[in-house]
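Q:
Got a chain?
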Amino acid sequence: MPFLTPGTAAIHRWPSGPAIHQWPSGPPPRFGPPVAWTVVSSHTARPVIGVLALQGDVREHLAALREQGADAVTVRRPEELAAVDGLIIPGGESTTMVKLAARFELLEPLRAAVRAGLPAYGSCAGMILLADRILDAPPDQETIGGLDVTVRRNAFGRQVDSFESDIAFEGLDGGDVHAVFIRAPWVEEAGEQVVVLGRVVGGPADGKIVAVRQGNLVATSFHPELTGDRRVHAMFADIVRNHLAEQAGSVPNGAAGNERGKP
C-alpha cells in the first residue's frame, strides 16, 4: 500500500463510487475493508476509465481512450467497476446488454455508481441504457438510468437504414463531428437539467437530438469510436479528470476547469 505525502488526497474506491478522504500526513490508517488508494495530484492525472465489455466496440473505445492519456480497462465485474474513475457504455443490443449485466451481477452496481456521480458516457445502446425513459422497447426492459431523457430505440430504422452524417456538436472546436448511426436511437424529450449537444440537420430527422449531457453523464446516438475523430472521447476524458480534481479539492466549488465540450 503506497504512502500518501502530506496534503494529497486519497480516493477510497467503494462499490457505489469513489469518496475522498484527506489525511494530514503518513499512510492511511490500517482499518476497515480492503481498499485501493490512488494519489491524485491534479486534474491532469492519468484517469482509469473503463469500457463495459459485454457487447459492442470495446477495443475501439479502449484505443480511443488510450490516445487521450487514460488507463483504459475492461469492466465485466462489480469489483472492476469499483476500480474505475469513469465508464463508457458502448453500442450493442440494449436488451441483451441489460440481461448480461444482470447475469454478471453488475446492473445494480452500475445504477449505484451512476447515482453516486461516476462519470459515464453512453454511445448508441449506451444512450438507451443511461436514459431514465425509453420508447419502443419491450415492456420489461430495464435501464441503468441517470439521464433525464426519453429515448426512442431504433429511431432511425433498421440495420439497413444505418447512415453517416456531419453534425454540429456544441462546445467542441474543429468543426462538425462526422457521425456514424447504426440502428441508432434519438432523444425525444430532454429534462431541464439536460444540455443538448448535437442535433440532426436536414432530412426527415431534422432537429432530432443525438447528443446530450447532464452533469457527469454524456450520451450520443452515434459511434465516435468508428471514425478516428477523438474529440468526443477527449471531452469525456476531460470530464473524468475534472471530476477527480473536484473530489481532490483542486477545483473549487465544482468548477469544471479546462474541459472540452463544456457548453
Remarks:
- The radius of gyration is 18 Å.
